[in-house]
Design brief:
Layout lengths: L3 H21 L4 H8 L2 H15 L13 H7 L3 H29 L3 H14 L1 H16 L10
């Protein structure tokens, strides 16, 4: 049986190719089918469920209603791992949706890489950067008038 530590390392290793697909070939068929569809995130969701199943018997789920209870719950390695897998699954899903929206905007690949980096490393910060970009483009659309020869 695998330990939470070995599964933590495995999860961190498994998630990276999906991020690389988003960053390097975001419009390719395999990236769309595997990552942008949410499929890869569902793989981590299943992993998450398996970790939750390892929760100690007699665990009180209402522990999640207080900060102290949450701290105590996360003292268990399986629940802590489940929390980490939760982050991996949702951050990857958000990165996939950012990639899809970004592609529709027709913005530079460099700005996509910036958004994906911050989403992978700091989750909501990457989402905020992306949505700020979307809102700015909505409020101040690019005009091509006067740019034609």
């Amino acid at each position: 049986m695998s330990s939470p530590e070995s599964l933590f390392k495995l999860a961190n290793t498994l998630v990276m190719p999906f991020w690389l697909l988003l960053a390097v070939i975001p419009k390719q068929r395999w990236t769309i089918l595997i990552v942008r569809s949410g499929g890869a995130s569902c793989l981590f969701a299943a992993f998450y469920i398996l970790c939750l199943a390892k929760a100690p018997s007699g665990f009180q789920w209402e522990s999640f209603s207080t900060l102290g209870g949450l701290r105590q719950a996360f003292a268990d390695d399986w629940l802590f791992l489940a929390g980490w897998i939760h982050y991996l699954a949702f951050d990857l899903y958000v990165g996939a949706k950012i990639t899809k929206e970004h592609s529709a905007m027709g913005s530079s690949h460099i700005s996509l890489l910036l958004k994906l980096f911050f989403t992978m490393m700091l989750g909501p910060v990457g989402l905020l950067i992306h949505k700020t970009h979307v809102w700015a483009r909505t409020l101040f659309p690019r005009s091509t008038e006067g740019l034609q020869a």
